[in-house]
Design brief:
297 residues, alpha/beta, Arc Repressor Mutant, subunit A, D-Maltodextrin-Binding Protein, domain 2, two-stranded antiparallel sheet, 12 strands, 46% helix, elongated
Amino acid sequence: MRIRQIEAFHAIYVNGSISAAARALCVSQPSLTKVLKHAEDQLGFPLFRRVKGRLVPTEEAHVLFREVKEVHDRLVSLRMTARNLRSGTGGHLSIAVLPALGLGIAPAAIARFRKTHPGVTFDVMTSHHDEALRCLYERQSEFAVVYAPAAHPRLQVIELATAELVLMYRREEWPDLPARVPLSWFDGRDIIGQSSKGPVGDQFTAALMGVGVTAREVVSVHTFYLAAALVRCGASVAVVDEPTALTLRDDAVAIRPLDPPLRFSICALHLEDRPLSKLAESFLSVLRECLAEALRP
């Protein structure tokens, strides 16, 4: 399919009619109908059928749209970047961050960066560890910010900060906890655990096993911030990453680091064959500053 055909198909599929799609694209209905007809002839199957006066996508159109949407979004991003470069006002950054960092630190960094770079646009994805790596491999993002990445020959690693795992709990339930909570405290206790732990969650599990401690996972979740939300509601205690805990704690919820400390790195990753742009390097400097401020003792 040619670019004009992709745009025509996308507009008709999204808007539901030739007339609405023509208005969205600022073209005439006859010209849009002609482009659609050429696309169907080239593909060898119809994309829409008229049912009771309405255009209804065919099954083939539903399948094709998943691919077309990705191409269309890339075209929009490309045009936006080209426009910004032409006007000299900025550029575009496509990044992937863990949900934990999307709660406060990444938004704060983006807001601070745009104050000095108002022309820069962002495409921000929140993804779990493995999904963030896939965004890199599929070139959906220029870089990804993750916890404790393993070495990989295709990836370059830039360390931004070091954080800890912490216990998050309601003050009224445990008013006398020590400054650092020993791992033995968890033996036999109810705890909110993670069903898809990633490298940091695995670190806590391995630490408990290393000292022969077994905690009872009464609730299993997929994200640290959901674990933190459950703590705030009084469901149980949870061990979460420091950025999540610092963002979501309140007067009723406290945090304590562990003994021994379970530290991990916060890193930016990019493909070795895709060096960071100057714009990305500048943003990572701001992100590093925000992390340092948030994690300051």
